[in-house]
């Protein structure tokens, strides 16, 4: 499995895309962003990439400018969105058509939800959506989760059973129309059940193909 890297200029500095192509013509393009912690891709995201490439999809992993610059802490949400939009323009320009699904892990899922309508996504994938900060359910991000659905865009959420950023019950209570929820064992980190995360995403995105 080979991957091609590109640097894309954004108002926040250069972002990096890492694109893995399937063996034949791509059935669609899945673009995934990372979370707010660390400089490495998590096992759940990598497992989703491998499963979707194996199913004939192109997968693009997006490193936000703060990670390209090797900073340990990302900027506020508006800056993340500002960087994401030109990256998606670049991805679409080179993708050659087909379905476009955007998504990500944790903070990356929030970015994808906020920008889904703007980038013309056909669906959104959320891995460990951070519905609220730990211990602060009153600071809900439910409006972000609902944004794609309000624009007619399906949202697929994969959530851990003991996620302190939002349990499956909490997510389900705020789940918008056109949204699905798959529950897997674990907290906010889903690396130990990466295969189950990948299977859930694969099933949602390839249903009916």
UniProtKB/TrEMBL annotation:
Superkingdom of this protein's organism: Bacteria
Xref: Pfam families: Abhydrolase_11 (PF20408)
Amino acid composition bias (Low complexity), ranges on this chain: 13-24
Residue intervals of the KANL3/Tex30 alpha/beta hydrolase-like domain: 29-190
Chain segments carrying region Disordered: 1-24
Gene3D superfamilies: alpha/beta hydrolase
Protein name: KANL3/Tex30 alpha/beta hydrolase-like domain-containing protein
